[in-house]
Amino acid sequence: MDIKAKCKFDYDSIRALTHLSLFKKANPKKRLLTMSVISAILALVIALEALIFSDAVMAGLLCVVIGIILLECYLYFLVPRIRYRTLGKIKNAENEYIFSDSALKVFTKSQEYCGEAEIDYSFFVKIYETSKYFFIFQTNNQAFIVDKSTIEGGTVEDVSNKLSAYVKGQYIICKY
Predict the structure, then answer these.
(1) Which residue range is the domain that position 54 belongs to?
(2) Fewer C-beta within 10 Å: the chain N or C terminus?
(3) pLDDT 10s digit of each residue in the chain, 176 long?
(4) Same domain flag for 75 and 102
(5) Virtual CA dihedral for 78, 84, 86, 87, nearest 10 degrees?
(6) Half-sphere exposure of 17 (CA within 13 A, CB side)
(7) In angstroms, how far is the first alpha carbon of the chain from the final one?
């Protein structure tokens, strides 16, 4: 039984892939909030310490903590935008997937590119599943993005069972 799905390489899907690669299984929003709160509290304590004791080391440490906050914001907000802008020919490309019994068929269409491929499930390295997407990695750096809301001819569980049967220990379900 063939199951069809689609995904467009729009900003939302690329942001989800970027957050997955940066934050792994951690919920990106919760991690950003947690790190920001911890860093802000730490910055406040260090700032008060620096003011009370006029300590230059504390002022330097305060700069480091502020740098950590800025880095977290950069990773969460700006890196996905940068990755999306650098997509080139596949920006806003639409992938159509057909999950057959033995292989995944992929059809890609964009303004400048058109292609198709058939990949045996055994070639997939790992698979991440979030509440909205499947990320099917062919290598550690290259992934197909499948939007769960577009699945036709089967259910999300059917696709999940089919994929998990081939990657066994590398099927990771993210809680976000």
Answers:
(1) 19-85
(2) N
(3) 799 999 999 999 999 999 999 998 889 999 999 999 999 999 999 988 888 888 888 888 889 999 999 999 999 999 999 999 998 888 889 999 999 998 999 999 988 889 999 999 999 999 999 999 999 999 999 999 999 999 999 999 999 999 999 998 899 999 89
(4) no
(5) 160
(6) 26
(7) 29
